[in-house]
Amino acid sequence: QVQFVESGGGLVQPGGSLRLSCAASGFTFSSFSMSWYRQAPEKERELVATISLGRAITNYADSVKGRFTISRDNARNTVYLQMNSLKPEDTAMYYCTRTLIHNWGQGTQVTVSS
Description:
This protein is mainly beta. It is 0% helix and 48% strand. The chain contains no helices and 10 strands. It has strands at residues 3-7, 10-12, 18-25, 34-39, 46-51, 58-60, 68-73, 78-83, 92-98, 108-112. The chain has a 6-stranded mixed beta sheet, with no helix packed on it. Strands 1-3-8-7 form a 4-stranded antiparallel beta sheet, with no helix packed on it. It is globular.
């Protein structure tokens, strides 16, 4: 059974940082490209970042480029999202999933507010 357990969210002031983690299970993690998505209230879920299975290629939404960094540890079956210079518009529930096959966990809430 494919599962994703996201963690690391919380309340942070504008300009602050958070590091999200996502523990994956139920499939061969190293064989899949992975992505982070987010969904703000009353908005559609949007793609934030993607990392290739070999970690060589990363892609980011324009809105987070230069502030967020996606990485992965294939030995730990875990994907990370380092978020710096956070803005109020980054407030959302964050989810990880395989890039081309979407299964959703419970997500982790990120709230950026003073």
